[in-house]
Amino acid sequence: MSKREEQGEPGPHTAGSLAHRVPDLGAMELLLAVARLGSLGGAARELGITQPAASSRIRSMERQLGVALVDRSPRGSRLTDAGVLVTDWSRQVVEAAEAFDAGAQALRDRRDSRLRVAASMTIAEYLLPGWLVALRTQLPDTAVSLLAGNSAAVAQRLLTGEADLGFVEGVSVPPGLDSTVIAHDRLIVVTAPRHPWARRRRPLAAAELASTPLILREKGSGTRQVLDAALGGLARPLIELSSTTAVKAAAVGGAGPAVLSELAVGEELATRRLVSVPMADVTLARDLRAVWPTGHRPTGPARRLLSLTRLPPGRVQ
């Protein structure tokens, strides 16, 4: 034992991490090819590298290990006794790496075989169907499940591992999640044509809207959060419902005024089953976001779906 090693210091062959002391997989695969073919040039061709590059890699491996591995001659390349031993060890390492790679591929295949999406109601009903149809053409073997709920429920499902990717429409990103804006939306006030607001000549003031009982989504929904934040508070709901479709149906039926996404009421406005009521002093705009647990960027099918949400309208493919 050297004086340095007696003092607890690493010697020249023990210093550094294992990665610095052991040749890389590429060098080991090259040595195995040389042993099998008996030719450095043949090994280089098999691995798709030049012969000078192969020679350089073998020399680097020999310097790293401190022993000669290959005797080169005009008749070919022959392993030294040390080279035979190192080749046997390399074969075990390469086989272990192949098993590692196969296991990793199995994990990727299992990940890619399913996609669990959680989305707030407006996005789930009016945007996600088109994205999922496009995803199906690209990943036909991926089974997709959709969990629809309000923005708070979406956050909870992501944080508990029940969903791989989420979509929300509130005023802020729920704690514990990262996000990216995928679209913009606007909330509008709507009523049935026979409601007095449908015939008013002056735009509706924010104060009047805030003091009027409305057909509303439940607390925790993105629509409710945006409306509450913009108006600084709301009157007691006329009716409280758990889906955009239910709110829209109640408004069409004449139960009272509602505030809904433009995405949700295009057909009803076009057919005059609902009438849009102009606002005087507030714009109810909001961002639609894709969300995922902090530090866990979407991968696999979730990443593919996220990319589809960023295509311009009419370009989903």
TrEMBL record:
Keyword Secreted belongs to the record: no
Pfam families: HTH_1, LysR_substrate
Entry-linked SUPFAM superfamilies: Periplasmic binding protein-like II, Winged helix' DNA-binding domain
Domain HTH lysR-type: 23-80
InterPro entries for this protein: LysR_HTH_N, LysR_subst-bd, WH-like_DNA-bd_sf, WH_DNA-bd_sf
Keywords: DNA-binding, Transcription, Transcription regulation
Domain of life of the organism encoding this protein: Bacteria
Keyword Transcription regulation: yes
MF terms (GO), sorted A to Z: DNA-binding transcription factor activity; transcription cis-regulatory region binding
Family indicated by similarity: Belongs to the LysR transcriptional regulatory family.
Protein name per the record: LysR family transcriptional regulator
Species assigned in the record: Streptomyces tagetis
